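The following block was generated as part of the benchmark described in Methods. Ligand: magnesium ion.
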Amino acid sequence: MERTSDGQVPATLIMGDGIGPEVTESVVQVLDALGSPFAWDVQHGGLAAIDRSGDPLPGATLESIRRTRLALKGPLTTPVGGGFRSVNVRLREEFHLYANLRPARTMIPGGRYEDIDLVIVRENLEGLYVAFEHYIPVGDDPHAVAISSGVNTREGSRRIVEFAFDYAVRNGRKKVTIVHKANVLKALTGVFLDTAREVAKNYEGRVAVDDRIVDACAMQLVLNPWQFDVIVTTNLFGDILSDQAAGLVGGLGMAPGANVGLHAAIFEAVHGSAPDIAGKGIANPTSLLMAAGLMLEHAGFMELRQRLEKGIDHVFNTGKLRTGDLGGKASTQEFTQALIQRVSG
Ligand code: NAI
Ligand code: MG
């Protein structure tokens, strides 16, 4: 990790679209109060960047991340159907961020589920997200048939499963569950399952392993989520199951994510730009705050991460201050100011 002469850690900051600027501002304020080491290089991306330069992923943003190898990113809007390709997906590809780590942990007791503590490790570059898609016209309908091919490689599968097991070992996790659909997509997710079982043998005696078909896993996550510890799965299944896991701990306002590669890492919330509540000042900043916590740990500042999470816990459970998505009345800034008081006190 790069350091400036006064010990700061240069990091790229992308405010994001929709609720992005509101929650990112909150995180910057809280990190300042915490005494965080990051020296921000503010860059643009998404709709905000299109407005400024016509490009949703400007060269200057890429250059900044190439230099800092570390970024915090607000959510970016992606048009549905036509329009430009997801900037989030392009960033993952550009910096080869093959692992997407998405922890879900109960922070507020008394919800639908108690004591959830699981981690989803999602393959971030392959599968159906390569978006090899095309249409075949029939008669006068240009979109009569839609075709998509997924790509999973043995190399990519090995890399992500090793990441999951290494994470489990490092963090004292007991079990890794391999999630697949190899009964139907025998080649595409079969190669993932085969490779994962092979990799698991190298961790025998250290980390337990089992596997589940994705649909059964989704049901089990509702019936008995406590049986899961670390889940490792392919790109699309990981996307879906991580939103589901967020639902177990209070929703998308509570779910951080890290996109990790060998040479760079980008931290973000699992949620999107939430256009339905954008500009109202009511978004829950916790997901991005927790993502900043993961970023602190990644940069070697575990103690700061712990202080940040203790602060959030205090505001939720002692201060009883919560945003609307959690049934509370606090605005983004009311929550932020309470947290600032706590972490700087
Ligand atoms: P979304 O995650 O933005 O919103 C889903 C629902 O959750 C909405 O009702 C929203 O109000 C609520 N929500 C999300 N985050 C919240 C928060 N922090 N506090 C309170 N409520 C929150 O998903 P949606 O609507 O499907 O996508 C909107 C846009 O975001 C799309 O353009 C999508 O492509 C993009 N997106 C970007 C992501 C990223 O930048 N990594 C990830 C997911 C979606
Ligand atoms: Mg998603």
